[in-house]
Amino acid sequence: MKPAAVGPAAVILAAGIVVAGPPALAFADSVTSQDIANRDAPTPEDFTDPDQSQIDKSIVELEPEIYDLDKGIEDVETTKASGGDTVVTLDTDILFDFDSAELSDTAKKKIKDLVEDLPSDSEITVGGHTDSKGEDDYNKKLSEDRAKAVAEVLTSEDSDLDVTAKGFGESEPVESNEKNGKDDPEGRAKNRRVEIRYEG
């Protein structure tokens, strides 16, 4: 195979590479390990053995978000007397994701905080409730699964508690799911709840 002819452009290009090379190499040679150590940007060595101040700083930066989420759960909790019972109501939109019966870690912590106020000598009923969207059977099963999830957290925190979980589905609304013949999102939101009920 005949070698390609070397034209003026190729010569210029080659010359350009030669000319451009020394400044780059010179720059690389001028950067010392001390220059790298003085930079603000982290290096791999920063992460191999962090000191306690670095760990504390990273934890502090996360705290505001955790606080805000916990405050949101606290805001939707209400305690009131109904007849001779005390009822603690929790909004399932805060406790659970849509169409889920799995509690978040923050929700579990909040439920555990309620245990100290629950009487160990009284029957405690955890009732799950939904709005009217969806089929009755599906809503009843979802509400029961959510009630069981809350009940499990309570009994895991205090095994002496006498807790029963029940699912009521959409059968016991506290607000109308419709207003003037139209869907009422605010009313439905109040109906999606878990109630912890006990005497006293």
TrEMBL record:
<protein>
    <submittedName>
        <fullName>OmpA family protein</fullName>
    </submittedName>
</protein>
<dbReference type="Pfam" id="PF00691">
    <property type="entry name" value="OmpA"/>
</dbReference>
<keyword id="KW-0998">Cell outer membrane</keyword>
<feature type="region of interest" description="Disordered">
    <location>
        <begin position="118"/>
        <end position="200"/>
    </location>
</feature>
<feature type="signal peptide">
    <location>
        <begin position="1"/>
        <end position="20"/>
    </location>
</feature>
<feature type="compositionally biased region" description="Basic and acidic residues">
    <location>
        <begin position="176"/>
        <end position="200"/>
    </location>
</feature>
<feature type="compositionally biased region" description="Basic and acidic residues">
    <location>
        <begin position="130"/>
        <end position="149"/>
    </location>
</feature>
<dbReference type="GO" id="GO:0009279">
    <property type="term" value="C:cell outer membrane"/>
</dbReference>
<dbReference type="InterPro" id="IPR006665">
    <property type="entry name" value="OmpA-like"/>
</dbReference>
<dbReference type="InterPro" id="IPR006664">
    <property type="entry name" value="OMP_bac"/>
</dbReference>
<keyword id="KW-0472">Membrane</keyword>
<dbReference type="InterPro" id="IPR036737">
    <property type="entry name" value="OmpA-like_sf"/>
</dbReference>
<keyword id="KW-0732">Signal</keyword>
<feature type="domain" description="OmpA-like">
    <location>
        <begin position="83"/>
        <end position="200"/>
    </location>
</feature>
<dbReference type="InterPro" id="IPR050330">
    <property type="entry name" value="Bact_OuterMem_StrucFunc"/>
</dbReference>
